[in-house]
Amino acid sequence: DAGITQSPRYKITETGRQVTLMCHQTWSHSYMFWYRQDLGHGLRLIYYSAAADITDKGEVPDGYVVSRSKTENFPLTLESATRSQTSVYFCASSEAGGVTEAFFGQGTRLTVV
Amino acid sequence: GENVEQHPSTLSVQEGDSAVIKCTYSDSASNYFPWYKQELGKGPQLIIDIRSNVGEKKDQRIAVTLNKTAKHFSLHITETQPEDSAVYFCAARKTDSWGKLQFGAGTQVVVTP
C-alpha cells in the first residue's frame, strides 16, 4: 500500500534497553522527520533527513540515533531507553522542504518501564 | 529559532456553532502555515494550509486567516459537527528550514450535540 507506515504500533521496553522504531514511505519523498508527541508540548522534532545519508538534529535529539541508508526508510533508535522517552513517536515525509505538505504515519506508542 | 504559541488549549462548542483557534509565531521568515487535525489514535492529517503571500484561504467549512504584520494566523470552523471533535495543531515553516515544522501545543476541540 502506498503511504507512510510505522512499526511497531505499540512497544513496551525496559529502561536501558535499545529499541528501534521503523518508518517506511512509498512515495520516494526526499525529506523525512521524526517527531515525539507529549501532552502540553505538541509535536517536537527529534531528527530529520533531506536525503539518503543526510541527517541532522532537531529540537530534542539527545538519546536518539537515526540513519537513512535508503530513501524510503528512516529508523529511529533509542540507544539506552529512559522513562522520559515514553511518548508517542510520529514519522513524517514530504516531497520537498519548502511549502509542500508533510504526511504523517500513524504513530508508535512507546512505554519505557 | 521559531516559537509557535496556540490558544486555547481546549475548546468546547455546541454543534452548529463556530470554532476559532489562534496561533502566533515569532520568526518573520516563516512563510508556510499548515493546520493539522489529529483524531484519537491516528497521526496528524493536513486539513488546510496558507502561504505568506495570501491573507485568507477557505475550504468548505474551514478557513484560515494570516496576519503577517502581527505574526498570527487563525483557524475558523463554521457549522461544527461532532466529527470535527479532534486535536488541532498549527505549525510554521521557513523555506530554508529543510521542511522542518514548528508546531503549536495543540487545541482539543469537543463538539457537543
Distance between the termini of chain A: 34 Å
Tell me the total number of β-strands of chain B.
11
User: How much of the polypeptide of chain B forms β-strand, as a percent range?
Assistant: over 45%
* Greatest interface and its participating residue counts: A-B, 29 and 28 residues
Structural class assignment of chain A: mainly beta
Q: How large, in whole angstroms, is the Cα Rg of chain B?
A: 14 Å
Rounded radius of gyration of chain A (Å): 13 Å
Helix content percent band of chain A: under 10%
Main beta sheet of chain B: 6 strands, mixed
Order of helices and strands of chain A: EEEEEEEEEEE
- How would you describe the oligomerization state of the chains in this entry? heterodimer
Which structural traits does this protein have?
heterodimer; A: 113 residues; mainly beta; seven-stranded mixed β-sheet; 11 strands; globular; B: 113 residues; 0% helix
Structure in words:
The complex is a heterodimer of chains A (113) and B (113). Chain A is mainly beta and 113 residues long. Chain A is 0% helix and 52% strand. Chain A contains no helices and 11 strands. Chain A has strands at 4-7, 10-13, 19-25, 31-38, 42-51, 54-57, 64-66, 76-78, 87-94, 102-104, 108-112. In chain A, strands 2, 4, 5, 6, 9, 10 and 11 form a 7-stranded mixed beta sheet that branches. Chain A has a 4-stranded antiparallel beta sheet with strand order 1-3-8-7, with no helix packed on it. Chain A is globular, with a radius of gyration of 13 Å. Chain A starts with a strand and ends with a strand. The model of chain A has no long low-confidence stretch (mean pLDDT 93). By secondary structure, chain B is mainly beta. In chain B, 0% of the residues lie in helices and 54% in strands. In chain B, strands 2, 4, 5, 9, 10 and 11 form a 6-stranded mixed beta sheet that branches. Chain B has a 5-stranded antiparallel beta sheet with strand order 1-3-8-7-6, with no helix packed on it. In chain B, a hairpin with a 6-residue loop joins strand 4 (32-38) and strand 5. Chain B is globular, with a radius of gyration of 14 Å. The mean pLDDT of chain B is 94. At the A-B interface, strand 4, strand 5, strand 9 and strand 10 of A face strand 4, strand 5 and strand 10 of B.
